[in-house]
Specification:
This protein is mostly helical. Helices cover about 80% and strands about 0% of the residues. The longest helix is centred in the first third of the chain and has 28 residues. It is elongated.
Amino acid sequence: HYPLRRQRQMCIRDRIKSIRLRRAYKLIYEDGFRVSEAAYQTGFSDPNYFTTCFKKEFGKNPSQIVSSDKI
């Protein structure tokens, strides 16, 4: 039972992170938040870690989302 439970918990953790990152995307793209503001608003205490996770999730840095909105 333990390995299955552990696997399920990891999946939940990844899901929560994904939800937080989608919320951050919305804050940056639609609401005009700065990257660091969006990171802190969605529970990330380190903007660098946030950027790493964001790029892994969306394939772009958060700053690219900001700049693409302004073009």
